[in-house]
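hey can u run this one w/ iron/sulfur cluster bound, need the C-alpha cells asap thx
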Amino acid sequence: MNLIRSTEAGITAPPVREAEPRHLCTDCGVSRMEDPKACGRACQFIKPDYEGLEAKVHGRTRDPNQPDELHFGPFRRMVRAALDHPRQGAQWTGIATRLAELLLERGAVDVVLTVAPDPEDRWKPVPVLVTKAEGMAKVRGMRMGYAPLLAMLEPVRDKGFKRVAVIGIPCQVYALRALEDELELDKLYVIGTPCSDNTTTERFHDFLALLSDQPDTITYLEFRADYQVELRFEDGSSKEIPFLKLPISKLPPDFFPLTCRTCVDYTNVLADITVGYMGGEGEQWLLVRNETGEELLSLLGDEVRLSQPGDKGKRKASCRGLHHQHRARRGWASAARNAGLGAAPGGLVDAEDRAARPGVRPGPG
Ligand SMILES: Cc1cc2nc3c(=O)[nH]c(=O)nc-3n(C[C@H](O)[C@H](O)[C@H](O)COP(=O)(O)OP(=O)(O)OC[C@H]3O[C@@H](n4cnc5c(N)ncnc54)[C@H](O)[C@@H]3O)c2cc1C
Ligand code: SF4
Ligand code: SF4
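ok here u go:
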C-alpha cells in the first residue's frame, strides 16, 4: 500500500496491481494495467520499432547522414543549459521539473506523471500524479530503480484528464509512445531524461554501502561528466570519488540487470525534449526533438541560460556501430515474431561496446 498523498501539493500515488512476470522487464507499469498483454505491443524489449515510432512522433527517423543523430536520435537543437536559479533538491538545476511546473502553472496540462521518493526510502521511485505546480518541488532529484509509472495512465483516464505531461526514462517513454494512440489524449508532453545502467533500488543500496560507512546519510549521487562520482550527505558535506576508484569489482555480476545492459536508448529518443547533463560539460544538456519540445523550451523564457555544446572525441565509429546494432536488434525482433516467440532478446551490447558509446556512464545512475 502506497502512502504518498499531499492534497496541498496536489500529489497522489494511486495503488497499482501486482506486476505480471516477464523475462526482460523494467516494470514500466504496463504489465500492471487492466490488459497486461499490452506489453506485447508496447515493450522495447519485446517489439522494438524505433524507426516507426520516431517517424510517428517526430515526423522523421534519425538521419543516417548526421552522425550525431545516429547516436542521439532525431533532434532539432542540442544545447547546454542551466536555470538561472537552480532549484533546491534538483538533480542538476531542475529543468525537468521546472518544465512540468510551468505546464501546471499555466494550465496547459491537467496532470503530470512522474516519480516521487518513497517516504521510507529516498532512493526508491514511486509513481505519482501531480495536479498542482507546488507539487513539482517534491519530486525533484534522481532515484535509482524501476517504477511502474505507466500504470498511472489508468487513474488519469478514470479522472477524465485529457492533457497530460509525463517525465520518464527511455524504457518508460518507449512504451508510452507505443500506446499513445490508445490513450485518446488531447495533448501529451513528454519530458525525457537520459538513462544508463539503472538497477534495483535494493542493489543500489548495496552500492552505496561500498562507498561510505554511513550510506543511509547519502542524499545525492551523480556520475559526473568529469569522471568523478559526487556524493552529498545529510550534514551538508560532499565527497568526490574518481570513477577508477569505484568498487565496481566488488559488485555482483548481475548488479546491472540484463535489461539495462541491453538497452539501446540512452538519450530517450522518443521524448519531445530530453533533459540530461552528460553532454553539458558541467551544465545541463538538452535535446529539443520536435515542435512540442520547442514549445516546452520556450516556456522557460529568460529563466534559462543556453549555449552551444562543445564537440570532442571521435564518434563516427561508435555511431556506426550503434546504427548497426539498432538494425540487428530490429532484425532479431522480427525474426522472433516470425518464429512465433513472445519475446526477443535485446540487442547484445557487451561492456566494450558500451564503453565505446560516448556519454554512457561506467556505473549505475
Ligand atoms: C536511473 C537514471 C539514470 C540516469 N542516467 C543519466 C545519464 O547517464 N546521463 C544523463 O545525462 N542523465 C542521466 N539521468 C538523468 C539525470 O539524473 C537528471 O534527471 C537530468 O539531468 C535532469 O536533471 P534536472 O535537474 O533537470 O532534474 P530534476 O528537475 O531534479 O527532475 C528529475 C526528474 O526525474 C524523475 N526521476 C527521478 N528518478 C527517476 C527514476 N528512477 N525513474 C523515472 N524518473 C525518475 C524525477 O521524479 C523528476 O521528475 C539519469 C536519470 C535516472 C533516473
Ligand atoms: S518493461 Fe516491457 S514487459 Fe515490462 S511492464 Fe513494461 S512493457 Fe511490459
Ligand atoms: S538503462 Fe534503459 S532499460 Fe535500464 S532503466 Fe534505463 S532506460 Fe530503462
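Residues 5-198+258-355 form one domain. anyway lmk if its weird
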